[in-house]
Design a protein that fits this description.
alpha/beta; globular; seven-stranded mixed β-sheet; disordered C terminus; 4 helices
Length: 165
């Protein structure tokens, strides 16, 4: 679980629906990014459900976006790519989310420095600055910390220095 230096982030990844997507296109909204392999998608379901419930209560639909990014770097070779694209497209449609594909492990590198093989959560403020990241299954205290940070950032009253610690 690492603090961040508030670096403004950009990223270009393929969408499961096709085409390239840019993280900068989400500026103006708080981004809660989940980076996981298929085997780890259930690890932080409690946090995902809490974020969904909060969003459905109408508190964040315009100010917060949850972004699912699949770590598909293990399948970055010709015969596997079309199969992975089709499978992730089907998953994204069945769950009703947009899913981006990280073929080359871009989120392993700076400034994200996410941990492969586990569920990762990163929070970016509305200007695109990485303000926190967590790896692994989050316990109740860590989930509350992430949710509080997202709520404060969405309300515009968060102290980003405090969030990064």
């Amino acid at each position: 679980m690492a603090a961040t230096n508030g670096t403004v982030c950009d990223l270009e990844l393929e969408s499961a629906e096709g085409g390239l997507r840019h993280l900068r296109d989400l500026r103006g909204r708080v981004v809660v990014l989940f980076w996981e392999t298929r085997e780890r998608t259930g690890d932080n379901d409690l946090l995902k459900r809490e974020l969904t419930r909060w969003t459905r209560e109408g508190r964040s639909t315009r100010s917060v976006v949850t972004l699912a990014v699949g770590d598909v770097s293990a399948f970055d070779f010709a015969p596997a790519r079309p199969l992975v694209r089709a499978a992730t497209r089907a998953i994204a449609r069945s769950v009703g989310i947009e899913l981006w594909l990280d073929w080359r492990g871009a989120l392993r590198g700076a400034p994200f420095s996410l941990v492969p093989g586990v569920s990762n959560v990163a929070v970016l403020d509305a200007s695109g600055r990485l303000v926190m990241r967590r790896s692994g299954v989050l316990d109740a205290r860590e989930r509350a910390f992430v949710l509080d940070a997202v709520r404060r950032l969405a309300g515009g009253s968060a102290d980003q220095t405090a969030l990064a610690s």
